[in-house]
Specification:
The complex is a heterotetramer, with 2 copies of chain A, 1 copy of chain B and 1 copy of chain C.
Chain A lengths: L11 H26 L7 H26 L7 H17 L4 H26 L3 H20 L4 E2 L5 H8 L1 E7 L2 E6 H19 L1 H11 L1 H6 L4 H27 L1 E2 L7 H13 L9 H20 L4 H25 L1
Antiparallel strand pairs in A: 1-4, 2-3
Helix pairs in contact in A: 1-12, 1-13, 2-7, 2-8, 2-10, 2-11, 2-12, 3-4, 3-5, 3-10, 4-5, 4-10, 6-10, 7-8, 8-10, 11-12, 12-13
Chain B lengths: L5 E6 L5 H16 L3 E6 L4 H14 L3 E4 L7 H9 L4 E4 L10 E3 L2 H15 L4 E6 L5 H15 L4 E7 L9 H13 L8 E4 L2 H13 L8 E3 L5 H9 L3 E7 L1 H16 L8 E3 L2 E4 L4 H4 L3
Parallel strand pairs in B: 1-2, 1-3, 3-4, 4-5, 5-11, 6-7, 6-8, 8-9, 9-10
Antiparallel strand pairs in B: 10-12
Chain C lengths: L7 E12 L2 E12 L3 E6 L5 H9 L6 E6 L2 E3 L4 H6 L2 E4 L11 H5 L7 E2 L3 E2 L1 H14 L16 H12 L13 E5 L7 H16 L3 E5 L3 H7 L2 E6 L2 E7 L5 H9 L18 E9 L6 E6 L3 E6 L5 H9 L6 E6 L2 E3 L4 H6 L2 E4 L3 H5 L6 H6 L7 E2 L3 E2 L1 H14 L16 H14 L4 E5 L7 H16 L3 E5 L3 H7 L2 E6 L2 E7 L5 H8 L6
Parallel strand pairs in C: 3-10, 3-11, 6-9, 9-10, 15-22, 15-23, 18-21, 21-22
Antiparallel strand pairs in C: 1-2, 1-4, 4-5, 7-8, 11-12, 13-14, 13-16, 16-17, 19-20, 23-24
The chains are: A mainly alpha, B alpha/beta, C alpha/beta.
The complex binds adenosine-5'-triphosphate (ATP) (2 copies) and magnesium ion (MG) (2 copies).
Chain lengths: 333, 290, 512, 333
């Protein structure tokens, strides 16, 4: 390969790192700020394990959302799907079905719903926004319909199932209490790993990135556009169903709206992560940073006992500041 | 003439358990009277409730029952008035445009749980409050609790949280409580959680259990006595009290009022209160159905 | 006639531009004179387009100065350049697909208005039609949505936009025209009309900067030529004082023997690809047979269906009827994926919209159709093999890039084209379907690509080569299929064929 | 002269119309269905005037949303801005400020918020999703903060103001009742007209389309990208504030969340409208059809007295069906 005459530049390497990791630096700044404000309680193992557990559900949705967003699509129905998957499993539990049956059915619903989204987007050719917004309404309606709008809780949820969210892998003890790496955190990490391998290490992921970059070129280059889009939506659907199950386990109850808030946050996390890639494409590790920013802000601001309304203002402002910073650094370098 | 009577029930809040009970009781009573009951939920959207009121007014139903703040849907009420359709409040709020409003006394409920907490703490302690002011019936409760706690100089409000309710109210409340617990790590640094309705109280309970701090005797109270809260009170892990509204009673009373009005009777009372009961471990068994 | 003044009209001085680790321009200066066509030449990636974008104010140089009529001027953005009377046709086709031809032609300027604010549509179309007429492309309707035109017509419409008279301020007419490889996507006839317009403009005292890799054009229309290499200006001379060989040497530092390497091996009689009565919405009943080792050219006027023939064979467009047999076996389900798997390789007509994923790396693009072959168990990407293959392809095509992981967007136009070509060689293809494969590629790299095509054919590959460059067709091909109005008009042997004969065939005449 | 080898086709003209107006046909099908089901109450002047009034607020948001969506951007903060604008005006009313002051301040807030969005998107270079989602949170937080989370109603809202939404231009009488063309409908129509002129008849609008079609081409062509994007976001911000005022007038009360639901519906309406344009770009008349579809569905399904949950399922399903139909028609022709 011919190489271009390149001028050595001392600050280049640093500039490049800053450029890529501006958002990460923003994240660390946020962490440092909370640490300095709450030196005793924020930077503790327990609090961080807590945070990981709190964001684990959002994480699973956001990680799998990354899969469709890599193709330039998005899926607005994930929150409703999480609610639906959770409700469906809980209803089966209520009928005294085995736990595994409930889980399997929820996952199947996730696949089926995802495939339906995929069919609408990829075979029929409806824009993802309209297709998945329509499906959001449908999923949510079905969740209400089958649950008759009621919350399922208490003995209906088997202990075996709700204990899962309480448990974890012992990491050691602090004081006299055992410190656990929460099971939900482990699930989220496994999903993260799976999505990372899928997107960054497999031919499937490569092709998704090609689709995201240029659909027509990808098609002419032999990428089976329709099939891959279909599969990608199914993956996102399963992710949402997994998140729905995690919610039921964590809350020991199921409610037809309990996943609804996940959608906007998940998309926001992916977009936050996108600010970290040179070409502005989503990457699942970037998404992780996005999820962490959202989770840490929530935890830290609550620890500061800031008024809920001000907290909301600050959340928005801090996110924008962090991203602005990362843009300005990139501009400057 | 009762056989082809249609009654529309308009509410943005059907997802809430309390509303469900009221609506179900109303439906049961209505169907027993031979009415067609049309329940319309606008999924939290109040402006849409106005539109739906206009729709059913245009359609010419025989009566309308609302479960939404009448001040916010006054346009819809006028549409009904213009069409000559009587409107009844079901836990809605007093309004001149309503034939009557059947409800529990929200101020009284908050007073009961807030005084319960004050008394349990003997007037000394640090309290976390969960409130939600954008929804007027819940906002009232917060005001009363504020006043009662303010009256005890040794009670300190360490946080007044408005949780995100898009997830049904439990999940976010739990995350927020976890952060508060982390910020107040010493045993005894939190004495009580006062929640303006049950979901945040349940979230707080879960957070306390997950943090392994259920032994500290943190007193948790909610309002509404929903089934999940009743279970929690019965379990005796810290969720000590809630207030049971007689939702079934409200629904039935509204149906009764509608029937009386349609029969030509004049209903004099602008508001009909249905009594509430403080639920604690002592009487919870009476409320847990089967 | 040619205006006599030849005074410097516009100067760009000391332009320096660094893209990360690439020094795209290093102290490059250029002087354009009134009444002159000034050619700018250089290998792919030499910095021509970057210099032009700096002139246009759309790329911000690290250092640069401009002078107009000898006075310093400031260009901070496209609008400034426009106000100074500079008009640009950039190298890549920059159209707004869903707008009409007329609106695309008015991109830089205010629309004619009524009542001071409403668009005066009638006037807009009229003005646009006028300019299209002067370019001899009056058949293009200014009302047409530009995305619906053929690639060639889109380019013509875009070129026309540079010749739009200024609606706002008639006292400041356009004086400098900068055309970056305008003819790369044009047929000979269309290019001729463009040259006519250029001549008329210089006669009026305008200056023209003209970039092309086509030597014959430079010698026909330019009076002066500047050669760039690695971001620097290496020579400037009057056309009258130089020769193609000198220019090539200035550009590349080497001399080329013959551009078209002769055939060295015999064509096998074995038919590789046979097509009978192929019909799509764009082509009608095309039949021909391609033998192993044969290079078959496809000639035709624009919109004759050449592109569509390749697209149909590749499965990009749906086949309505007809029979396609590969290696003696009839193939039924044709799709791009299956075609690549069957050993067909494809270079599409428009590299940026159809060929490349600009946001991805060179290696990602180069192996995209063959990902399964560069994987472990068809699941995991094998980065080492991918890198090795990319590096050897880059060497073979003389790709100028920093690293196989460099993003394709950052490459010069010609180098992007090389990536598309390299990709077609990556799997071991049996049939090469090439649509204008050397578009925008410099002379010496063209030479190498011709050699690669020859070599592939010697290895037993069949090649279908669509080109608007008649010498290329005649020089490289064994037979030429002439398309006309969607039909196969004739198949002729390229031996002893003259350009004039070939052109006549394209116009529908029969020759004996 | 090049001519396309065109295969003659008798049905081409019809095909073309179907292709463009598939979604419109879907809309008429929906109307016909409701008409047949509720012959007496659905197709009445009064009901339609009602529908127009109900969708007027969504309409204003969707029409002005079209302005940014034409550029390929979107604004998630419109709902929060509507809430904020409304609350701000109501607070001033509560302070017994003149009605006009309240209106002016709300509009100013709309402009300022829109410009802020514009600055973030166009000058700083943050993706519209992150920028406007961040601002959504901020606006909503501010709305809560200044209102202390409470609903403002009753005498705080001047009658003069709330009467506006009740009034209208008399069209005649049916039976003994006067039929009014509601003021809110008139406002929406005026906004529609203004946006239509802006987008379709002015240089500014055409530039926005150019930006949406190909940013790079627009930039190379000398379009002042940054300035235009800034202005477009300001227009959308004002639109949201106007909608907020309309809400306050209609509900005779202001609440910090009352506009929140508008955002998704507005974007959905624009996307629905996009299915009607050949090249898939937004047009404000298409947006109108989108808004009408959403409004008529809600009105009609309510009149059919269908269970709320089923109604929700049907809404999603019907929208998807209508769009699928329009896609299939387009595919076939
Ligand atoms: N995007 C498009 N939409 C509609 N018609 C198109 C499109 N692209 C090409 N066509 C039509 O297809 C026919 C052939 O296209 P094209 O001009 O690409 O053929 P060609 O022989 O390859 O010529 P050239 O490559 O010189 O442009 C023309 O009639 C053209 O108008
Ligand atoms: N945006 C960019 N980022 C990084 N490098 C760039 C960018 N644009 C151009 N370059 C580099 O600058 C150099 C000059 O590119 P330029 O496009 O000016 O070449 P050119 O002479 O026009 O070549 P061609 O004949 O292929 O069009 C190339 O090495 C190219 O890779
Ligand atoms: Mg170039
Ligand atoms: Mg072609």
């Amino acid at each position: 390969m011919n190489t271009t005459p390149s001028i050595p530049h001392p600050a280049r390497q640093i500039g490049r790192i800053l450029r890529r990791f501006g958002t990460l630096i923003g994240f660390f700044a946020i962490v440092l700020f909370f640490w300095s404000q709450r030196p005793d309680t924020f930077m503790t193992v327990r609090n961080w394990l807590n945070i990981t557990q709190q964001i684990s559900i959002l994480g699973v949705v956001a990680f799998t959302m990354t899969v469709v967003m890599v193709m330039g699509d998005y899926d607005l129905s994930v929150g409703a799907m999480a609610s639906l998957g959770g409700i469906a499993a809980a209803l089966l539990f209520q009928q005294e079905m085995p736990v595994l049956t409930g889980i399997a059915v929820a996952l199947l619903i996730g696949v089926a719903g995802g495939l339906l989204n995929g069919v609408l987007v990829s075979l029929v050719g409806i824009t993802p926004f309209v297709a998945t917004l329509g499906m959001l309404t449908v999923f949510s309606g079905v969740a209400f319909f089958i649950s008759e709008g009621e919350t399922i809780f208490g003995r209906a949820i088997p202990e075996q199932f709700s204990d899962f969210a309480r448990g974890g892998i012992p990491l050691g003890t602090i004081g006299e209490q055992a410190v656990l790496l929460p099971n939900l955190t482990i699930v989220a990490l496994l999903v993260l790993l799976a999505v990372w391998v899928l997107l960054e290490q497999t031919t499937f992921g490569r092709r998704l990135y090609a689709i995201g970059g240029n659909k027509e070129a990808a098609r002419l280059g032999g990428v089976r556009l329709r099939l891959l889009r279909l599969i990608a939506f199914a993956v996102t659907g399963v992710g949402a169903a997994v998140a729905g199950l995690m919610l039921v386990s964590r809350l020991a109850s199921a409610n037809p709206t309990q996943g609804d808030g996940l959608m906007l946050d998940a998309i926001a996390a992916v977009f936050l992560g996108m600010t970290m890639s040179e070409e502005g494409e989503p990457h699942v590790l970037g998404t992780l940073v996005g999820v962490l920013i959202l989770g840490v802000l929530r935890n830290g601001l609550t620890q500061l006992a800031i008024d809920s309304y001000v907290q909301q203002i600050l959340t928005g402002a801090i996110i924008i500041l962090a991203v602005t910073l990362s843009r300005l650094i990139r501009r400057a370098s | 003439a009762q056989d082809d009577i249609t009654v529309a029930v308009v509410t943005p809040y059907l997802a809430q358990p309390g509303t469900q009970f009221m609506v179900e009781a109303f439906q049961a009573a209505g169907e027993a009277n031979g009415w067609t009951v049309n329940v319309i939920d606008t999924a939290g959207d109040v402006a849409a409730a106005v539109s739906r009121l206009e729709d059913v007014a245009a359609q010419g139903v025989d009566a309308i029952v609302i479960n939404v703040d009448p001040a916010q849907v006054s346009v819809g009420l006028e549409a009904a008035a213009a069409a000559g359709i009587p409107v009844f409040g079901m836990d809605a709020g007093a309004d001149a445009n309503l034939v009557t409003n059947v409800t529990s006394n929200g101020y009284a409920m908050a007073a009961e749980t807030a005084t319960y907490v004050t008394d349990r703490l003997n007037g000394v302690g640090r309290i976390v409050m969960f409130t939600f002011d954008p929804y007027p019936p819940v906002q009232k409760r917060g005001i009363i609790a504020d006043a009662i706690f303010a009256n005890s100089p040794d009670i300190e409000i360490i946080d007044r949280v408005t949780p995100d309710v898009t997830d049904g109210g439990i999940a976010d409340s739990r995350a927020r409580m976890e952060a508060i617990l982390a910020a107040n790590p010493e045993a005894g640094s939190i004495s009580a959680v006062w929640a303006a309705w049950d979901q945040p109280a349940l979230g707080a309970l879960q957070a306390i259990e997950a943090a392994g701090r259920e032994g500290e005797g943190i007193v948790i109270v909610g309002i509404d006595a929903n089934p999940q809260a009743l279970d929690a009170i019965a379990a005796g892990n810290g969720f000590e009290a809630s207030v049971a509204q007689d939702f079934t009673g409200i629904g039935g009373t509204v149906a009764d009022a509608v029937a009386r009005h349609l029969a030509g009777e004049i209903i004099g009372q602008g508001v009909i209160y249905v009594p509430t009961v403080l639920v604690t471990a002592a009487n919870v068994a009476e409320f847990i159905s089967e | 006639m040619m205006s006599s003044t030849n005074t410097p009209l516009f100067e760009v001085l000391g332009a320096t531009k660094e893209f990360g680790a690439t020094l795209a321009l290093e102290d490059a200066s250029l002087t354009l004179r009134a009444g002159e066509v000034h050619a700018l030449m250089g290998e792919n990636g030499a910095g021509k387009s970057t210099l032009i974008k700096v002139m246009a104010g759309v790329t911000h140089a690290d250092a640069v100065a401009y002078r107009m009529d000898g006075r310093p001027v400031h260009i901070g953005g496209a609008a400034d350049a426009f106000r100074l009377g500079l008009r640009f046709i950039h190298q890549e086709l920059n159209i707004v697909p869903q707008l009409s031809v007329a609106e695309n032609m008015h991109m830089g300027q205010r629309y004619p208005r009524r009542l001071g604010m409403f668009v005066h549509w009638g006037e807009l179309y009229r003005r646009s039609q006028q300019v299209l007429d002067t370019l001899g492309v009056g058949y293009i309707s200014p009302r047409a949505i530009i995305a619906r035109l053929s690639a060639g017509d889109q380019m013509l419409a875009k070129i026309a936009s540079a010749f739009m008279p200024d609606a706002g301020d008639a006292s400041r007419p356009a004086r400098v025209y900068v055309l970056d490889e305008p003819t790369a996507a044009l047929t000979g006839e269309e290019a001729e009309r463009l040259f006519g317009v250029i001549q008329a403009l210089t006669a009026q005292g305008c200056a023209v900067l003209y970039v092309s890799h086509r030597m014959d054009e430079i010698f026909r229309i330019a009076q002066r030529v500047t050669v760039m290499r690695d971001g620097r200006v290496v020579s400037e001379s009057l056309i009258a004082d130089t020769t193609p060989d000198v220019l090539i040497h200035d550009m590349t530092g080497r001399t080329l023997e013959t551009l078209y390497p002769p055939r060295q091996s015999a064509i096998s009689p074995e038919p590789l690809l046979s097509v009978e009565g192929l019909v799509t919405t764009k082509i009608r009943a095309v039949s021909f047979t391609l033998a192993r080792g044969e290079i078959m050219g496809v000639a035709g006027l624009s919109a004759s269906g050449r592109t569509e023939l390749l697209r149909a064979l590749m499965g990009a467009d749906r086949k309505l009827s007809g029979r396609v047999a590969l290696r003696g076996k009839v193939v039924n389900w044709i799709s791009p994926r299956r075609s690549w798997d069957r050993g067909l390789a494809y270079v599409p007509e428009e590299r940026r919209s159809q060929g490349l994923v600009l946001s991805r790396s060179i290696e990602d693009n180069a192996v995209l159709p063959h990902l399964d072959a560069f994987s472990r168990g068809r699941v995991f990407v094998n980065r080492r093999r991918e890198r090795r293959e990319t590096e050897s392809l880059a060497l073979a095509t003389r790709l100028k890039a920093r690293h196989p992981s460099q993003v394709v967007r950052e490459l010069s136009g010609g180098n992007q084209q090389k990536v598309v070509f390299a990709r077609a060689l990556a799997g071991r293809p049996d049939v090469l379907l090439l649509d204008e494969p050397t578009r925008g590629i410099d002379v010496s790299a063209k030479h190498d690509i011709y050699q690669l095509i020859r070599q592939k054919s010697a290895d037993g590959c069949g090649v279908l080569l669509v080109s608007s460059d008649l010498p290329e067709l005649i020089g490289l091909c064994d037979r030429i299929l002439v398309m006309r109005a969607g039909r196969a008009h004739a198949v002729v042997s390229a031996a002893n064929l003259t350009q004039a004969d070939l052109l006549r065939l394209c116009y529908g005449e029969k020759i004996s």
